[in-house]
Amino acid sequence: MRKHREVSQTTKRIQNQLFKALVLQTALPTIFIYIPTIIVFITPLLNLEIGPWGNIAIVTIHLYPGTDPLILLILISDFRGALIKTPQKILNATNSVIQKSTTIL
To answer: Where are the transmembrane segments (predicted)?
Structure first.
C-alpha cells in the first residue's frame, strides 16, 4: 500500500489546533487541581497559615469541569465559529416577524 507523505494544509491546521488543545487540557488539571491541593496539604506541615486562601483549592477544583471544554470551544476554529454564529442565528430568528393574513369572505 502506498503511503501518503503530503498532508493538506487543512489537516495540518486541525492537527495543530488539536495538539494545542491537548497540551492545555493536560496542563489544566495541574493548575486547577493539583497545585492548589498540594498547597493546602503542605502549608500545615510547614506551620504556615493560609487562612481563607485555603478555599481557593475548593473553588478551583469546582471550576475545572467547566473550563475544560472551553479550551476546545476556543482553540478549534470550527467550534469557535459555531459558537459565534449560534447567538447570531438566535438573534436573527427573533428579529424576523412572520406576518399572517386572514381573509374573511
So the answer is: 21-46, 52-76
